[in-house]
Amino acid sequence: MRFLLRLSGAIDALTERIGRAVVWLVLLVALLSAGNAVMRYGFSYSSNAYLEAQWYMFSLIFLLGGSYALKHNAHVRIDLIYGRFSRRTQAWIDVVGTVLFLLPMALGLIYLSWPWAMNSLSIREMSPDVGGLPRWPIKLLVPFSFGLLALQGLSELIKRIAFLTGALPHWSPEEEEEVV
Fold it and tell me: Transmembrane segments in this chain: where (predicted)?
């Protein structure tokens, strides 16, 4: 179990680094959006590349931010019932949800998006719009981001099982930072 907890800690550290980098994209996309608006309405200048850069950064925030949200328990959850259960019951719910829903969904989307992304890379797909950006880099991030989500799901699964088996003295979604 020690090895698995160290693996969980390494996955958490990777997710944390990527998540902290992605946070800066929020500022960058806001500045780019404001700049686009000023250029379009103030100077009658527009660029497809700037618009597509906005879309790509927005996509990156959501694609790469999913695993970070999972790590920090910031994902949407219907807490009407879950919050009333004991920590052990919550951990069991998380184990079942991760095994039956999260991991199969993430692995399925990796499987389905991989050929699509590889095809885009092989043809060096570009935007059909004049002055547009390459499409293949953002398409490659789809299977990559679901891979990160699957890894973080594995990390969360390890922590819940460690708690349930007594290898971790305590665990709760609110105390996630203190677990490993």
Answer: 21-41, 53-70, 91-116, 136-154
